[in-house]
Amino acid sequence: MKKNILLVVAMLWVFTACNNKSKEGNTETANGTETSADVNKTPSVKTSTTDGTSDNKVVEKKAEANDNKEAEAMAQIKFEQTNHDFGDIAEGTLAKHTFKFTNTGKVPLIIKDARGSCGCTVPDWPREPIGPGKEGEIKVQFNSQGRSGMQTKTVTLTTNTQEGVQTLQIKAKVSSTSKMQGPLKQ
Predict the structure, then answer these.
(1) I want to staple 93 with a disulfide (CB 3.0 to 4.6 A). Which of 13, 64, 71, 89 is the partner?
(2) Burial letters for 147-178: b for 16+ Cβ neighbours within 10 Å, e otherwise?
(3) Would you tell me which CATH number, out of the four given (2.30.29.30, 3.40.1620.10, 2.60.40.10, 3.40.50.261), belongs to the domain 82-175?
(4) Does this model's pTM top 0.90?
């Protein structure tokens, strides 16, 4: 029994050792042999300039083409504006703004989630997919109760775009409605 366990452990060690060596590759260059630990690296090409000097350039056209195909296969969101300033508002005001957007991609846009930076900022977003070329709205409501001074809040959208995240921002200067009074005399 002990021999069988030892044999299994030895075989596993041999297989894992073989797999590690197969990932390493040797390449020959004009100057000698280069050892590469990663065979999947982007190949480099040696080009000559007009004055006879060498210029190493990395072949990135294939990677760029793949990135472009992936970007085309994703939705794209374009907002009319991503910032809104309510200006001066009184404390207790429920300020509302609608951010309008267009899906400029070739596939339906899905807004997976929308989160306000705090409980006073509440977004309302479309739960259904927005088709290519179609428009949509994100309604944002800011409750200024208990707030004073300059307020900057954000709404973070999680989407199926290449960026994955889009941020909207609202601002307001909240003036306090309560008057400060000194201690009460009894």
Answers:
(1) 89
(2) beeebebbbebebbbeeeebebbbebebeeee
(3) 2.60.40.10
(4) no
